TrEMBL record:
Ranges of residues in domain Alcohol dehydrogenase-like C-terminal: 62-187
Organism: Labrys miyagiensis
Protein name: Alcohol dehydrogenase-like C-terminal domain-containing protein
Upper classification of the organism: Bacteria, Pseudomonadati, Pseudomonadota, Alphaproteobacteria, Hyphomicrobiales
Keyword field: Oxidoreductase
Domain of life where this protein originates: Bacteria
Amino acid sequence: MGVHIDGGMSDYVCVPEQNVVAANGVTLDEAAMVEFLAIGAHAVRRAGPRKADRILVVGAGPIGLGCMIFAKLHGGSVTALDVRSDRLAFCCDRVGVDNTVIAGFDARETLSQLTDGDFFDVVIDATGNAGAMQDGFEYVAHGGTYVLVSIVRDTISFADPEFHKRETTLMGSRNATPEDFFEVFHAILQGFVPTDALVTHRVKLAEAPASFPMWLSPNAGVIKALIEV
């Protein structure tokens, strides 16, 4: 709802009772962030990382940050790749990723050096950019897993000989199941999620229409904006 069918901005929504998860114990602010964090938790669970796996998350928006948080909680060594240095600084200071790399012409060489030329056991793309999604195939280690959280209308292509040589596992991830929601609630209640830092903007409902265009600007520095009644 709100993606494949209309209804995301409805005043009232009717859904099956089994699809509703109780937000017991968390604040309203925290409950408003559970959904995007669950998308990240689901992507990490799909990848099935082992402790100490090298995990690259491409894209440091809210979904990417969720992936980083839960990749760390699963014991991974996490590297963040993004075009914006301010987002990478946030990943380092607030999420505690192990390495950050600015996207650009020399990013592949930097990623190679970080892994002694082996690249990453798990690569997760959360950019929403077809070019970045295609580049990600080059960052997967032999026997590694590539998870595409991003959804784009474009056709994604890759070099088949390289794909087969590395025996890459390719996965799509777009859902969140009750198991993922419960994992997020547990992580929040244990203090493992920097929810206060993730909220960068807050407005009243009446101010929201005027605020949306401003939030779209990279200069606004939006991570997550909350709308209050």
